[in-house]
Known about the structure:
173 residues, mainly beta, Thrombin, subunit H, 2 domains, four-stranded antiparallel β-sheet, 2 helices, disordered C terminus
Amino acid sequence: MNIVKPCVVTLTWALTDAQNRPIDELKEPTEFLFGGEDLLPKIEDALQGQEVGFEAHLHLEPEHAFGDYDAQLVCFEDRKLFPESLEEGMRIEGLPAGALTQGMPAEAIYTVTEVYASHVVLDGNHPMAGMAIRIQLKVLDVREATEDEAQRGTVGRELLAVVEAPGPGEPLH
């Protein structure tokens, strides 16, 4: 079966930065919806029309991966708005109740980058924003998407279009 929208592709991959330093490796074959929310557009472009056994080595600039770094997505909030257990590297969904920063995306996942006695620094950028990445992938299987998968836009796993970004040492998938 050729890869056409909507279908489910089973992939393995190795992801590195532009200097070939490892970022993530998906050794166990994992399913992703082609034509939905699971894959970056440039990955879908490479997979379009291919079939089982296809391998690709892609280089994605930031604008085709996780976007350019946007300094306007960094904000400072009062330390009192957060639990005592807050630590650098933690992720929170949206800004806390009582946040004073205006114009920040409410649906963003913010990474706690610094914790001070008086304030907390939050970053709404994806941890890999501003990075060029390289991905080596292999197609192990292709099947038709179920009606439910096609309607939801996902098979239930998140790939490179991850909204909840991984923490240090956590896999991307």
